[in-house]
Every structure is written in C-alpha cells, then in structure tokens.
Amino acid sequence: MLFICLILSGYCPCFPKKYNHNASNTSDTNFINEFGANNFTNTSNSNLTNLPESDEDLHYLYDMEILMDVLLLLVLVWLLNREFEIGYRLSFHANFVANRDKIHVQHLKNQADWLIYNIVPEHVADQLKKNAKYSENFKNVAIIFASIVNFNEMYDESYLGGKEFLRVLNELIGDFDELLTLPEFRSVEKIKTIGSTFMAASGLNSTMRLEQEDPNDHLCALMDFAIAMQNVIDNFNRDLLEFNLILRIGYNFGDVTAAVIGNTKLYYDIWGDAVNIASRMDSTGVNGRIQVGEHCLSILEKKVYF
C-alpha cells in the first residue's frame, strides 16, 4: 500500500526527476554548440511530434505504466490466491469423502467380522483370513452335549405354528451364549446347536492353552460351564408357567479334529471318538445331571466336582 501511495503522489524514487526547464535549455544549447548544429538537422519532423512535449508528460506516462503493472500484479496475486483456495477446498472435500468412506468401510468390516465370528471361533476366523482353509488336530479337548430332554413335550405346532415355543428356546440358548462372554469361560467355545441340544468344547485354541498355568485348566473350565448351564435353566424355569425344562449333559475329553467345511457357507465342527462318547454320555445320562466317563474322574476329582 505504501508503494501504491508513493506512485499516486509522484514521489516514488524510481521515477525520473523533474528538471528545470531553463537548465535543460542551457545544457541543450551547450551540447549543440559542442557537436554542431548540423547533427540535428536530419531529424524527422514526424518523429519529433511523437515525443513527449515536456518532462511532466514523460513522468505521467511512467506513472501510468507502473500503475498498470501494479494492477496486473494485484490481479495475478488474486488469481493465484483464488487457485490456492479452490485447491484447498477440493483437498478438504476429498479428505472428507475419503474419511467418510473409510469409516463406512470399517463399519462394513466390523459387521463382516461379527458375522464370521458368530459362525466360527475368532482364532479359526483369523486362520481362514490367511489360508482360506482350516483343519487341526488337538489332544485332550473337552466336549459337552447338553440336551433339553422335554422340549418336544412343550412344543405345540398348533399354537401359532410353534413360533412361541421356538422363541422360548431361543431365549434359553441366548442365555447359554451369554455365559461364553464371561472371563472364566473364555476357553469354552460353542460348536453348534442341534435342535434343542447345545454342543460346546474347550481346548481348541492353541495359543490360549499355552497361557494356562495348568494344562488341564480348560477341562475344568468346561465342567464349570456345564454347572453354570444348570443354574441358568433353574432361573429360567422360574419364569415359565406350569412347565419346567429339564437339562441333561454328557461330558468327555480326548483327541479330536477341528475343521471348517465348505467354501461359501462355512461349517465349523469337531470329529473324533471323544465327541461320539460325549454324545452317548448325554443320550444315556440321567435327567438333570452331568454324566462323565470314568477316565475323566482322575482329572475332575482334583477340583472336588464329585
């Protein structure tokens, strides 16, 4: 602004000074006398008429030229600032859209993880993300089959197509699932439900087994889980009218093979003689009790379960 004010006032040091007109005539006379008057006789009259008439005219032309330069410079600065502002706004919008899409993708990923973790255990899902296949052999895996033996007696398809009774079963299985969220049952995994039978196992996570102080802790954890299931159904029966559900559990441990079957619709399960024996312990057991094999007693007796 100071520079522009100097321009408009005529005091800018870059402008030529106004010389005294008389002094200028004197110097011109001396110059002509020194070099001869004939040197100027060949100058065209038309060219002389195009020259500024005085120093004031020359000064005015300089002022206008510099003023135009300053104005053009200001326009250029404005255009550059405008381009910078447009670029900044575009960058801000792009970052906003990118962050919004990133949050959306993360939300979809969390939903996908939640779905897959409800189909297969988390440690199995992590392996599937790396190898797309899963099959492992494990020793000393504990298995239970817990059946609601009198559910078919309660189920009546003629009443709302059986939906109300399936709702009751869903609530009970949901209560069993909530037990799995407790820290003391973190080594227990739900395998599947078959009708009104709930199947679970422990000792299928190799990393977790390495962290155990006692190599048999997971065996006792599954027995504690079975006892907790009995407590859950006792509390559940208090809310039922004129009917009590009966839970029967078969327990066993041994060597098993765990695997995921299928490419599009994943199916996680375990196989082995220990699984078959646990199933028979359930089917041949006593209602309201937990039946175990003889070879399990030596381990479970240490925890005073019997």
TrEMBL record:
Reactions the enzyme catalyzes: ATP = 3',5'-cyclic AMP + diphosphate
Origin: domain of life: Eukaryota
One Pfam family here: Guanylate_cyc
Cell compartment(s), UniProt: Membrane
Stored InterPro entries: A/G_cyclase, Nucleotide_cyclase
A single cellular component GO annotation: plasma membrane
Signal peptide: 1-16
Protein keywords: ATP-binding, Lyase, Magnesium, Membrane, Metal-binding, Nucleotide-binding, Signal, Transmembrane, Transmembrane helix
Gene Ontology terms, MF aspect: adenylate cyclase activity; ATP binding; metal ion binding
Predominant subcellular localization, coarse grouping: membrane
Guanylate cyclase domain segment(s): 142-282
EC number of the protein: 4.6.1.1
Membrane topology listed for this record: Multi-pass membrane protein
Group of enzyme by EC: lyase
PROSITE patterns recorded: GUANYLATE_CYCLASE_2
GO aspect biological process, one term: cyclic nucleotide biosynthetic process
Record protein name field: adenylate cyclase
